[in-house]
Amino acid sequence: MSFHLIDLQTWDRKEFYEHFIEEVACTYSATVNLDITNLKNYRLYPTIIWLLTKAVNQMPEFRTALTNEGVGIYDELHPAYTIFNKENKNFSAIWTEFHSDYRVFLNSYECDTAKYASSVNYAPKPDRPANSFDISMIPWFTFTSFNINVFDSRKYLLPIFTFGKYIDDCGKRLLPLSIQVHHAVCDGYHMGKFIEILQEQITQFSYEG
């Protein structure tokens, strides 16, 4: 894991960062419908987690964090995601190391989910890396808006993603995705660019298991 500190004095975003983290502390969220028609024949959850992480790792604005060392950018992030315990109707939060090869990632995902599927603990897999971000899925209902409130003294900069229940509409399969970011490091332009990258990767995805 590499974390590159940003020199605030030379950072072209310095004024914006300081405004949105000190003067007007501001996070915001947006909900979009992703066209996942191309994913109909694939296992949705591991596939969308991998595609989402791949897109995150192409956007430095989504890998910017504030640590005890200062504000900086991780080289790479790994997905931390929720899995549902069908017996006790609760969930656990686990993580899987990201790999650019989907086959490698899928194998790790399957091992992790099989190992912790029956867990009754919130975080049963130890040693979650600092360079990880949160993903959850709410497959019981769809939504047009979703917002998470993080009470962390305004310092949590990494994105948070929430998927809902997909719907089929006029031949397309649409998956709602809520994206929550901190305005100190991510503007509407960056949000739009991320959505564009993610949608393109979904449309182009192909895998033969």
Task: Walk me through the topology.
Elements: E1 3-5, H1 14-23, E2 27-35, H2 44-56, E3 64-67, E4 70-74, E5 78-85, E6 90-95, H3 102-116, E7 132-137, E8 160-163, E9 167-169, E10 172-182, H4 188-204
Parallel strand pairs: 5-7, 7-8
Antiparallel strand pairs: 1-4, 2-10, 3-4, 5-6, 8-10, 9-10
What kind of sheet is the major sheet? 7 strands, mixed
Overall strand count: 10
Name the helicity range: 25-40%
Unreliably modeled segments: none
CATH architecture: 2-Layer Sandwich
Give the integer mean of the pLDDT values.
Answer: 95
User: Please, how many domains?
Assistant: 1
CATH homologous superfamily (4th level) name: Chloramphenicol acetyltransferase-like domain
Radius of gyration: 17 Å
Provide a descriptive summary of the structure in words:
This protein is α+β, with helices and mostly antiparallel strands. The chain has one domain (3-204): 2-Layer Sandwich (Chloramphenicol Acetyltransferase). 26% of the residues lie in helices and 28% in strands. It has four helices and ten strands, in the order E-H-E-H-E-E-E-E-H-E-E-E-E-H. The chain has helices spanning 14-23, 44-56, 102-116, 188-204, and strands at residues 3-5, 27-35, 64-67, 70-74, 78-85, 90-95, 132-137, 160-163, 167-169, 172-182. The strands form two sheets. Strands 2, 5, 6, 7, 8, 9 and 10 form a seven-stranded mixed sheet that branches. The longest helix has 17 residues, at 188-204. The model has no long low-confidence stretch (mean pLDDT 95).
